[in-house]
Design brief:
Elements lengths: L31 H28 L8 H4 L1 H16 L3 H44 L12 E4 L3 E2 L35 E2 L6 H9 L3 E5 L4 H12 L8 E5 L7 E6 L2 E6 L3 H11 L25 E4 L4
Parallel strand pairs: 1-8, 3-5, 4-5
Antiparallel strand pairs: 2-7, 4-6, 6-7
Length: 313
């Protein structure tokens, strides 16, 4: 088909003239040598960028690991509470040390208490051992140890200072005759029934050691014999007993003396002798033993001992 035979719509369009001047198109084509040079350069720049990105990622701080209890808050909170409880509660070693310390303190406290109680008990025994003999006369062998409180027999007199003197040495005069206290020798007179009068200073030493002295001026030999038999028959004789003739006593009388006490009786009076001896025997200020430091020659049972009530002379 020729161009004359084509329909109008198929006829080639002729260019429409334009009033604007035509601008020459920019040359964008690249020669083949330049393309070949640009491709390797781009390929070289790509690894360098990748390396820089890797280095930046390595230098960046690592993201913190997710908190354990973020995923399970109840379990994490329980674990945290248990950790806090263990941290705040004392360790077993600390508790054990505290218990040992408490036991040690308690043991020392018990030991001090036992020592104090034992010391007090021993002190009480010592005090009783010193005081009791001066308050209650101890029973002689064969005596009933149960005392009975009775008024003290005799008359209580003023006690003079117990000053020890040598034989022949001057001293304060006695306030009673025979004496009942005061100056004395270091050694007592013999114990028991004596046939001669002894020095007052020696007899006062006997009184200090707890003696009851029977000072008599009996002219009847029968009464002297009865008095002798009576005294030698006393339990523990001659301990704590002295009998002697005494010129200053009235004829036919007996003056009984003890430390700070005396009593005058007429003739041989058994009841008066019993009461005075029971009240004052072995009650001197210087206690030696149950028998005034004398070995007894006779151990005869006697009635229940009596304790004199010195508050009601």
């Amino acid at each position: 088909m020729t161009e004359a035979q084509r329909p109008n719509d198929e006829q080639p369009q002729e260019p429409v003239p334009s009033d604007e001047p035509e601008t020459p198109a920019a040359e964008t084509s690249i020669s083949e040598p330049e393309v070949e040079q640009a491709v390797p350069a781009a390929e070289a720049e790509a690894p360098a960028a990748e390396r820089e990105q890797s280095a930046a990622e390595a230098e960046a701080p690592a993201e913190p690991a997710p908190i354990a209890y973020a995923a399970a808050p109840a379990a994490a909170a329980a674990a945290h509470a248990e950790t806090e409880r263990k941290r705040r509660s004392p360790a077993k070693r600390t508790v054990s040390r505290a218990q040992r310390r408490e036991r040690s303190v308690a043991k020392r406290r018990r030991r001090r208490t036992l020592i104090a109680v034992g010391g007090g008990f021993i002190a009480s025994l010592l005090i009783l051992g010193i005081v009791l003999p001066s308050v209650v006369p101890l029973a002689s062998p064969g005596q009933n140890a149960t005392p009975t409180l009775v008024p003290a027999a005799g008359t209580q007199v003023t006690v003079q200072d117990a000053v020890e003197v040598a034989e022949g040495e001057q001293h304060e005069a006695y306030t009673t005759t025979p004496p009942t206290s005061g100056a004395h020798y270091a050694v007592p007179a013999p114990w028991g029934v004596l046939l001669e009068q002894q020095a007052d200073e020696a007899i006062v030493r006997n009184l200090q050691e707890g003696a009851v002295v029977v000072n008599h001026n009996l002219s009847d030999p029968t009464q002297v014999e009865m008095l002798t038999d009576y005294l030698t028959g006393q339990a523990g004789y001659p301990g704590c007993l002295v009998a002697q003739p005494y010129d200053a006593v009235a004829d036919g009388n007996i003056v009984l003396t003890a430390w700070g006490w005396n009593q005058t009786i007429t003739g041989f009076d058994v009841e008066a002798l019993d009461a005075f001896i029971a009240s004052h025997r072995n009650r001197g200020p210087l206690f030696l033993d149950n028998n005034c430091g004398v070995t007894p020659a006779v151990a005869v049972p006697t009635p229940t001992p009596v304790v004199p009530d010195h508050t009601n002379p």
